[in-house]
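In response to the reviewer comment on reproducibility (Comment 2.3), we provide here a single inverse folding case reported in full, input and output, so that an independent group could reproduce the run without further information from us. The structure tokens appear first.
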């Protein structure tokens, strides 16, 4: 029988233990662990959640990897066409874990209403387009259908709708400048069949999603010519590897660029979140460990007489240290239990209500996103428990300094 665990249980269950001098210190230690695990869970869930949402939105507007002509065009507007007759289209068979290959083309335009005007990027897509991203952020109407004849249906953002007073079902004019500025611009009358709101203001205030055949006609391209291809992959963590493989498998006149390469500043910024998460975890574990060290030392000093009796009965220092480490482990587990309960409750409330909001101009999202994965929660709990117990091994050595003769005093 593990008598060390038996003694630890008796200490924990004793009424004197609950009303002793060490009781408030123990409660403070448990609260510190609970708060620490809550803060760590929130830091990880919101940090990873924000990273994923920003990656998702950048990829939703650009695809994970873009294949375009190899030229010096760094703008959002496609200038030279690419032939659709490629080995990798419509299915990229030579590279694994590719979900979809879709064509696109973009053209600068101006929306003109009776009272106002606004410059926009007219993004043309085809029937092969994956609408999953816009389905999530569709706030009104429906998604356009480009599978039949040239469609005048377009998808606009809530930002454009509010600024230009274009409501669902309204038709409006979009003008496109011709290569010869002396000629009258192209005019397209389109209809807003859907309104989206991603909260990514840099894109929302610019992009109108339309039928690619409008751009093909205005640019005098054939139906086999497009602005480029967007490649969607299964796992974003493999994007650098897949970008390299896609680049290798495309022709010498084509360039494959990942969304990370296209927006390096944004990805460098969100990668800094990892450093913040590691720092918060280190600080919280250190605070919890220091509180547990204090509680353990108080428990040992409060039980010096019991330690002396156990030594007089032949118990070794290692066995007695185990008794108090078991006791400390129980306190840590209590703190972890309440911390997990509170942390999960807070995160679930935020996940399903979005009660805490953010400035989309700064963070590219309207509310704090939450990423929940029980793997990281389990690892966080195990790591906290192990690190706290390791930190308690050294202070528990004070038990070996207690003299049984001096400590056994009966009054």
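Designed residues, in position order:
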């Amino acid at each position: 029988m593990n008598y060390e665990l038996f003694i630890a249980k008796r200490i924990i269950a004793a009424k004197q233990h609950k009303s002793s001098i060490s009781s408030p210190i123990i409660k403070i230690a448990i609260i510190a662990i609970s708060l620490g695990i809550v803060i760590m869970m929130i830091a990880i869930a919101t940090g990873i959640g924000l990273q994923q949402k920003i990656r998702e939105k950048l990829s939703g507007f650009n695809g994970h990897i873009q294949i375009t002509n190899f030229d010096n065009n760094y703008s959002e507007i496609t200038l030279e066409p690419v032939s659709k007759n490629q080995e990798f289209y419509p299915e990229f068979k030579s590279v694994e874990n590719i979900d979809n290959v879709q064509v696109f083309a973009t053209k600068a335009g101006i929306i003109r209403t009776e009272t106002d005007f606004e410059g926009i990027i007219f993004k043309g897509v085809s029937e092969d387009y994956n609408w999953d991203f816009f389905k999530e952020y569709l706030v009104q109407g429906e998604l356009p259908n480009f599978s039949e004849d040239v469609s005048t249906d377009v998808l606009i953002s809530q930002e454009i709708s509010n600024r230009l007073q274009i409501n669902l079902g309204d038709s409006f004019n979009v003008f496109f400048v011709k290569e010869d500025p002396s000629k009258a611009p192209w005019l397209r009358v389109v209809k807003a069949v859907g309104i989206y709101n991603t909260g990514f203001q840099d894109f929302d205030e610019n992009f109108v999603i339309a039928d690619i055949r409008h751009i093909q006609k205005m640019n005098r391209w054939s139906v086999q010519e497009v602005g480029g291809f967007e490649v969607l992959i299964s796992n974003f963590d493999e994007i650098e590897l897949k970008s390299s493989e896609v680049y290798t498998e495309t022709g010498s006149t084509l360039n494959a660029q990942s969304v990370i390469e296209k927006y390096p500043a944004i990805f460098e910024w969100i990668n800094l979140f990892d450093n913040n998460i590691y720092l918060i975890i280190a600080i919280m574990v250190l605070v919890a460990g220091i509180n547990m060290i204090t509680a353990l030392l108080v428990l040992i000093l409060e039980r010096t007489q019991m330690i002396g009796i156990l030594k007089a009965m032949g118990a070794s220092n290692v066995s007695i240290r185990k008794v108090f480490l078991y006791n400390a482990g129980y306190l840590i587990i209590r703190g972890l239990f309440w911390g997990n309960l509170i942390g999960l409750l807070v995160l679930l409330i935020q996940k399903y209500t979005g009660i805490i909001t953010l400035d989309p101009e700064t963070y590219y999202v309207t509310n704090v996103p939450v990423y929940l994965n029980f793997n990281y929660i389990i690892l966080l709990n195990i790591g906290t428990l192990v690190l706290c117990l390791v930190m308690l091994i050294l202070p528990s050595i004070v038990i070996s300094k207690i003299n049984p003769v001096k400590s056994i005093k009966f009054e």
